[in-house]
């Protein structure tokens, strides 16, 4: 097979020999590493929730610590699940693409881990050596540079996904059609183009002011793109369900008309919900000199700061949350329960791996998005603390959109081929 840069050849898979070849030790190794993995994931999730739920921890030190915990979860998830899967399936195979992807994410999260540890060291240096100037603009400059980098990666990464899909005829399928729409939404969702330019402007001008009209506009687009992201993830789960559970009827069921209709309905539902929520905010009256303990105008915080009666707003807000967040989440769970059931009926381990790999990227993004979002708002509801979700909101509003293009492309041969063709065509 032709290599990436020329006529050199490479094999399609490798063997991971693991820690030990002794069969009787495999259950012990499996249990040991599964336990360590679960402790690492849930321990770091608890730390993130603790930081987000306590206003006393809303400081730069704990902000960086919560991001470090998230990176640690990602770092360990790069290798351990694959190792556990190989032990469980009595297989030692990893594909060439899987190996390259593993190397990429190991280097990515290891480098990010080192960078965050360095930033945390600088934070402690300022706090101890310059305590009177701890909130100095220097720290704001670091935060500004960090989020500007994340913003640029998110925008250009997702733009590359869109360009690769539109320029390659082989990717004109339902799965990539939905993925290109998701990438478009991720450029504008939540903390990216809806909020980050305003935050960066405020840091650079040393101002914290946002006008009432800008705040309402920000709320409108935040809700619009957040709900649209959820609905598109649900549609993609249905697409994977049809592809795996009903492969012979896939092209008939997921025809272009249905795909277009599903995206159109997602937009209509999102626009109507966002419009109704924003109009409900307009009926509220606010006291002067309102301070929002967040880095953007978030609906729940705005309602809590109102001086007028908010009962109707809370009813509409929670009803929409149950219907447009809980409903799609239940649909995703149903789709994947049927997908897992179908995969388990496949006889060969290689066939199971191939089937699972087609939806692994989507499942990863769904898990990141829902786990962080639910963690933020459940902790906020439990503590009734206006500050509680500010730090942890970064997880699903910054990290998830930034990782989407990497997760969806690096484990996908067709996407990598399209990206290579795009770079060659554009002489990049």
Automatic annotation (TrEMBL):
Primary location group: membrane
Any one GO cellular component localisation term in the record: membrane
Segments passing through the bilayer: 28-49, 61-81, 102-122, 142-164, 176-196, 216-238, 258-276, 315-334, 355-378, 390-410
Alphabetical list of InterPro entries matching this protein: GPCR_Rhodpsn, GPCR_Rhodpsn_7TM, Olfact_rcpt
GO-annotated molecular function: G protein-coupled receptor activity; olfactory receptor activity
Keywords: G-protein coupled receptor, Membrane, Olfaction, Receptor, Sensory transduction, Transducer, Transmembrane, Transmembrane helix
G-protein coupled receptors family 1 profile domain ranges (all copies): 43-134, 157-408
Keyword Oxidoreductase in record: no
One Pfam family it belongs to: 7tm_4
Membrane topology designation: Multi-pass membrane protein
Residue ranges of coiled coil: none
Localization (cell): Membrane
Keyword Lyase in record: no
PANTHER family reported for this sequence: OLFACTORY RECEPTOR
Family: Belongs to the G-protein coupled receptor 1 family.
Role: Putative odorant or sperm cell receptor.
Name of protein: G-protein coupled receptors family 1 profile domain-containing protein
